[in-house]
Amino acid sequence: MRVLGVDPGLTRCGVGVVEGLAGRPLTMVGVGVVRTPPDAELGHRLVAIERGIEEWLDTYRPEFVAVERVFSQHNVRTVMGTAQASAVAMLCASRRGIPVALHTPSEVKAAVTGSGRADKDQVGAMVTRLLRLDAPPKPADAADALALAICHIWRAPAQNRLQQAVAAHRTLKGRTA
Fold first, then answer.
1. Helices 120-130 & 105-113, crossing angle to 10 degrees?
2. How far is the C-alpha of 121 from the C-alpha of 43, rounded, in Å?
3. First and final CA of the chain: distance in angstroms?
4. What is the pLDDT of residues 137-158, one digit of tens each?
């Protein structure tokens, strides 16, 4: 399974591609950041993020895209920018028919470190260890993108079983109604 993780942001949008299967060693295929100038017009920044994501999709051809689910923060401006960058990533993947999964920051932290309250340094350290890297990816947005991809690889089998069970239940329920 090849997953593009996206840690959305308007100034720095972390991107990372991880390949592997749950229960097997994982491999980092690529990691980076799509950057936009903070003083640029919003529309131009979103187009730059789209171009960056499209380039990653062209280059790495992921089977899935995992995006951090936007959560409420105190700074509404930051939330809006994150949500807009997140929407661009989801649009790029969906346009190509690539399934998109959203994972909350606490889900990602729990999957990678064992604690949903882990800090950025702990996430970076575990990403480094799990992918057998020499050093944590910098900036933290890049490490977070890899953590998203790892989280999806590890959680996808269970999520797929749950979705299949729900679908089977609905089908069975529809037959008895």
1. 50
2. 32
3. 38
4. 999 999 999 999 999 999 987 7
